[in-house]
Amino acid sequence: MTTTLQSRKTSCPATVPRPVFIYGTLCAKPLLAWALTGSAAHVDQITVLISPAKALNVARYSVHGCDYPAAIKKQGSYVTGYLLQPQTLS
């Protein structure tokens, strides 16, 4: 199942962990595991925290001279990635 995301504004204080949309380079699970745990070998620990997702009305573009993409608003487009649901605020 893929979660579909649309941008929304909220003024809620951060008292519970909020989901984070991950796309591009961070969709490589070993890299995401390294970023979150400090070890690329911990893919099993992060797999339970992510689910497939789609961000609507944005398009993915390469950034000249950079190793990472950018997501820019574009009506009718979408970017696929993961929805990361952290377990803590830190």
From TrEMBL:
Record Pfam families: GGACT
Cited Gene3D superfamilies: Gamma-glutamyl cyclotransferase-like
Domain Gamma-glutamylcyclotransferase AIG2-like: 20-85
Name used for this protein in its record: Gamma-glutamylcyclotransferase AIG2-like domain-containing protein
